[in-house]
Design brief:
Layout lengths: L1 H23 L2 H25 L9 H18 L3 H23 L5 H19 L10 E2 L7 H28 L1 H11 L1 H6 L4 H27 L1 E2 L1 H4 L2 H14 L6 H19 L4 H15 L4 H13 L1
Length: 311
């Protein structure tokens, strides 16, 4: 009990420290942390369908793009409020996940993964050829009327808030019947069905929840950048990078994806600024070594180390 209280106190202090961060440190590091929060959200959202349910959705970037373009079109073409536009993006992404979820989630393993990549590619081509989205030329969003420092802080707190909500929802899912059903599906889908778990419904709902938070991050990103184009927000590497972060920290855990996102983004920032020509090779080497020695992620690795010490 005392250990749980200590962990809870550390988390609260950490959250307070991150809340005060923009008031203490300059804009560069605020931007870096905003990027970490964004990818932490994407990795945590992917964790719901990939980590807990066992369905690797590399094409989850389709929801990021849907969220981004919903905000861009709603604000630019229809003059809607930013917050309403972000919520609308989440709703549309969830509906899209519902529509494609029932046929796609009947596939398993690499077939499902390839299908999600195909859906992402199809949506990229559709948006590329729509007039109201600006087509391949992209779309410019309204400029935010704030000082640069205030703008940095604004998007920092938005991404941080979405990340906290995503973590809270993941924690809630992991502790109730729904989360246990997802784990049962991951372990053995036939056995889960035999004990009364309606796998298609649970999988679809899990993907819808994942889509909502991915779209929220995409919508905030669009307004943050003020300009987006199809190849940028429907980039398949967004989904792949999110998966690597989840794998690095530990899929099926609450904090694993956030830890993975933090490490990979910080290392990427350092490598990019100091080793521009070989940054991909260095990052790839780090990922390969980590997966070889910690195949279940950093969280699981340290859990095993702690148990061995106690034993």
């Amino acid at each position: 009990m005392n250990k749980n209280r200590l962990v809870f106190a550390i988390i609260i202090l950490f959250v307070i420290g991150l809340t005060l961060f923009p008031k203490i440190f300059p804009g560069y590091w605020v931007r870096v942390l905003t990027g970490i929060f964004m990818y932490g959200t994407l990795a945590s959202a992917l964790n719901i369908i990939a980590g807990y349910t066992g369905y690797v959705a590399f094409g989850n970037s389709v929801f990021f793009g849907i969220g981004a373009y919903t905000v861009a079109v709603a604000m630019t073409n229809h003059g809607l409020n930013f917050y309403i536009s972000v919520l609308l993006g989440g709703i549309i992404a969830a509906f899209f996940a519902f529509i494609v979820g029932f046929p796609l989630l009947r596939l398993r393993g690499p077939y499902f993964t390839i299908a999600t990549i195909g859906v992402n590619g199809a949506m990229l081509e559709i948006v590329n050829n729509l007039e109201f989205t600006g087509g391949g030329e992209g779309i410019t969003l309204p400029l935010i009327r704030m000082t640069p420092q205030a703008t940095y802080a604004f998007f920092y707190y938005l991404m941080f808030g979405v990340l906290l909500v995503t973590i809270a929802v993941t924690y809630w899912l992991s502790k109730n019947r729904f989360g246990y059903a997802l784990r049962a599906i991951r372990a053995n889908e036939e056995a889960a069905g035999a004990i009364g778990i309606n796998a298609p419904i649970y999988k679809t709902i899990a993907w819808m929840i994942s889509a909502i938070f991915t779209a929220f991050a995409g919508g905030i990103y669009a307004y943050w950048m003020t300009f987006i184009d199809p190849s940028g927000v429907f980039d398949i590497m967004i989904g792949v990078k999110s998966f690597v972060m989840m794998l690095l920290g530990g899929g099926g855990t609450i904090l694993g994806p956030i830890i993975g996102a933090s490490i990979l983004e910080l290392v990427s920032e350092f490598v990019w600024s100091n080793f521009l020509m070989i940054h991909l090779m260095i990052l790839g080497t780090i990922i390969v070594v980590t997966v070889m020695f910690m195949p279940r992620g950093i969280v699981a690795f340290f859990r095993r180390k702690t148990k061995r010490r106690i034993a």
